[in-house]
């Protein structure tokens, strides 16, 4: 989702200086809007100008990205960006092999996730395919944009609830997810770092809500498991005069720290171990490495903030008995 978010924003031409000024030769032909491929009409987000409205309205300049230098061949990339990752039988074969490797590893290791791996892979293909087809329709109006973001939050809530417990109290996961996502989105949009436009709101919301969902699921499962496996410690704390919430917090608080390990490790090692999706997405969208790094820092720190809040709220809900196993 991070790639979708940043690459979608980055492919708007007016996020860059006018590429036609002072350019000559083959590079100018590639970068200048006049050199765009004939099929640009099928891609209204390519070559959008400030004085011309596209299907999602005028595209504002993003302060964080307004100084990007256009990559050589930018317009050619915009017209043929999909060819960078070929869509055809080689892709199908590669995906099938990757799923087979995951299933084989699960079988050999007897971890019991073979069926879940296949189901997850099929769902990913179907869902991303559907999103690719409907995303432009979604961002044509604020009503559909808001409806789609609410759908994201609802699906995230249901997913976390089912991961934590079969009890209906798991639906309180929505409180933790929104508590983490809303402040981060407010800061990012209010600061002007990401423009409050439909084409930007949908993907950035997906990134933040998705991160908060994962953290909520992990924190909730571990906290509930801790209350079960360390029941003796909980009852001992009660016998010493602790209240139910305080006694439970002694047991479940470490679960919160463990749930944040993936986010902390990802933030610590970015650029050294991994090149995450936002970084790669900006590069694919024609941005330079500095702009890609800035976008990735924004995403990582936003996710870290959202996930930390979500974990704290989740642990509190479990300790207070709002979320329980039975």
TrEMBL record:
Protein name: ABC transporter permease
Membrane topology category: Multi-pass membrane protein
Similarity comment: Belongs to the UPF0014 family.
Location within or outside the cell: Membrane
Sections of the chain in a coiled coil: none
Annotated transmembrane regions: 87-109, 116-136, 142-159, 171-194, 200-220, 269-287, 293-319
Domain of life from the UniProt record: Bacteria
A Pfam cross-reference name: UPF0014
Keyword Membrane: yes
Keyword match Cytoplasm: no
Protein's organism: Pseudonocardia sulfidoxydans NBRC 16205
Keywords: Membrane, Transmembrane, Transmembrane helix
Stretches the record annotates as Disordered: 32-52
Biased composition (Basic and acidic residues): 39-52
GO CC, alphabetical: plasma membrane
Predominant location: membrane
């Amino acid at each position: 989702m991070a790639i979708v978010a940043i690459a979608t924003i980055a492919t708007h031409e007016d996020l860059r200086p006018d590429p036609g000024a002072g350019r000559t030769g083959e590079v100018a032909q590639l970068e200048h809007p006049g050199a765009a491929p004939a099929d640009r009409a099928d891609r209204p987000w390519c070559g959008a100008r400030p004085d011309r409205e596209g299907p999602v309205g005028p595209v504002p300049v993003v302060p964080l990205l307004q100084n990007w230098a256009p990559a050589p061949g930018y317009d050619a990339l915009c017209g043929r960006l999909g060819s960078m990752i070929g869509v055809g039988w080689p892709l199908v074969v590669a995906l099938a092999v990757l799923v087979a490797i995951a299933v084989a590893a699960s079988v050999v290791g007897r971890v019991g996730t073979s069926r879940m791996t296949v189901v997850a892979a099929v769902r990913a293909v179907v869902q991303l395919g559907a999103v690719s087809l409907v995303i432009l329709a979604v961002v044509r109006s604020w009503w559909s944009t808001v409806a789609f973001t609410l759908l994201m939050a609802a699906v995230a809530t249901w997913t976390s609830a089912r991961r934590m417990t079969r009890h209906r109290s798991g639906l309180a996961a929505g409180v933790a997810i929104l508590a983490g996502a809303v402040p981060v989105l407010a800061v990012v949009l209010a600061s002007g770092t990401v423009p409050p436009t439909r084409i930007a709101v949908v993907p950035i919301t997906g990134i933040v809500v998705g991160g908060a969902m994962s953290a909520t699921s992990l924190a909730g499962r571990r906290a509930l498991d801790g209350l079960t496996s360390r029941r003796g410690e909980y009852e001992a704390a009660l016998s010493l005069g602790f209240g139910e919430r305080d006694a439970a917090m002694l047991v479940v608080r470490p679960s919160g720290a463990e749930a944040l390990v993936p986010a902390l490790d990802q933030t610590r090692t970015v650029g050294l171990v991994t090149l995450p999706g936002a970084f790669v997405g900006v590069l694919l969208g024609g941005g330079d490495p500095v702009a890609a790094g800035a976008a990735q820092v924004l995403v990582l720190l936003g996710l870290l903030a959202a996930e930390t809040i979500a974990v704290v709220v989740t642990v509190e809900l479990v300790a207070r008995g709002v979320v329980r196993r039975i």
